[in-house]
Amino acid sequence: MAIQIPRGTQDILPGQSEIWQYIENTARELCRRYQYKEVRTPIFEHTELFLRGVGDTTDIVQKEMYTFQDRGGRDLTLRPEGTASVVRSYIENKMFGWANQPVKLYYVGPMFRYERPQAGRFRQFVQFGIEALGSKDPAIDAEVLSLAMSLYKELGLKKLKLVINSLGDKESRTSHRNALIEHFQPRIGEFCSDCQNRLEKNPLRILDCKKDHDHELMKTAPSIIEHLNEESRAYFEKVKQHLTDLEIEFTEDPTLVRGLDYYNHTAFEIMSDAEGFGAITTLCGGGRYNGLAEEIGGPETPGIGFALSIERLIAALNAEGVELPIEESIDCYFVSLGDAAKDYTVKLAYELRKAGFTVEKDYLDRKVKAQFKSADRLKAKYVAVLGDDELSNQKINLKNMETGEQVEMELATFTDEFKKLQA
Ligand code: HAM
After folding, report:
1. Confidence (pLDDT) at 280
2. What's the rounded mean pLDDT across residues 188-214?
3. Ligand 1 near 285 CB (within 6 A)
4. Residues 57, 89: contact at Cβ < 8 Å?
5. Ligand 1 centre and the CA of 376: distance in Å?
6. Is 17-169+229-319 CATH 3.30.390.30?
7. In Å, how far are 10, 19, 61, 85, 142 from 288, measured between CA atoms?
8. CA pair distance 47, 256, nearest whole angstrom
9. Which of 71, 95, 306, 354 is the most exposed place for a label (fewest CB within 10 A)?
């Protein structure tokens, strides 16, 4: 039996890969405007990084990591997300000492999670993400959010919903944590074993439980908003004010709890509201993670960022019926007739390509008619026809496929003439 692709992964084939490139280019261009610079970190890291960074009570760490030992006995993990790696790199490369602060980074690359595959959920998926390290100005929270929204909007998505929450600072979270324990403890026996473990370690994660989602205690659980201290409240107000000034619509959801442990203050998700998008509507997630750098051995560093998967972005484009303006045509197709002419088109194609044109020719000894069909399929703007007769006269025929107009050109000056046509 032929070997098949692993579950939860996909091949991105020609026809699709152009869409990926278009999205990635748009994201890179946006980062250039916002002055986020690309960082490329390894696909695998020491497992310890994610245990400490993402948090050992999270689903990601407990159930979803691709962890293995290499031949030297090192404990390694395929990265399930980008933030921990970026912060590790920030510390290791002493970016806190760079002249330009805050340090603003972006990444595009595959992430790996052993999840149950379904529409919009893969085991290997590509995240585009940004991280701003070294500033606790609420304006940078708004900048990060505005970049995410701008990417979706520039690609043509309209049915978006931005949901934000504040998880507050350490003091606020401790106070909320205690209230949650008090709330759930008396009836924790009615909850799943995961939630029972979470009660002491990280009760906030109970609110995110998929199994006990409908338990009545979930609805009456104390809200973080009631436990925000004055500073956290003021910070959140300022972020919201900036968003309002930027005319970025949002809704507040005090139950929004992100699936990773490092968040505090601003937390957000962007959802698709498109009909028929499917059950998983979250396109993008992010938030502030002051304290993460210390957690993995670095200096105190505030940080905020987001990540989104290109897979879900494409699903949203499909759900909204957005067609990206992808250039499909080619500049010239060479049709040849006869062996000598065929050989000569190898050189002509090379020259036009060197001059920057998109060019194709026949490599299957097809009949002239079939070669023209290929040219049509490739949406060639021009077809250059060279037969052995023309070759002996040092001429070539060029047909404009849009107008049907044909001109005979000197073979010696063909490339230059072709360039002039395009000018
Ligand atoms: P996350 O919410 O785990 O956050 O993932 C962010 C985004 O990655 C999701 O909103 C979704 O678009 C995509 N995603 C996650 N899992 C899958 C999957 N199995 N298949 C397809 N797409 C998926 C993080 O990863 C954080 N590092 C985000 C962040 C950056 N926070 C601060 N900076």
Report:
1. 81
2. 88
3. yes
4. no
5. 41
6. no
7. 31, 30, 20, 16, 11
8. 27
9. 71
Residue 29 token pair: 């261009």
Which sequence spans correspond to the domains of the chain? Answer: 17-169+229-319, 330-422
Mutate to test the pocket of ligand 1, among 81, 131, 147 (most ligand atoms within 8 A of CB): 81
Per-residue HEC secondary structure of 163-202 comes to EEEECCCHHHHHHHHHHHHHHHHHHHHHCCHHHHHHHHHC
What pLDDT digit, counting tens, does each position of 345-375 carry? Answer: 999 999 999 999 999 999 999 999 999 999 9
| CATH level 2 (architecture), domain 330-422 | 3-Layer(aba) Sandwich (3.40)
Say which residue the tokens 């934000």 belong to: 164
- Whole-number Å distance, alpha carbon 58 to ligand 1 midpoint, is 13
DSSP letter string, 62-87: III-EEEE-TT--EEEE-S-SHHHHH
55 lines ligand 1 (CB under 6 A): no
∠ CA 132-310-133 to the nearest 5 degrees? 5
240 Cβ below 6 A of ligand 1: no
CA of 241 to the centre of ligand 1 (A): 26
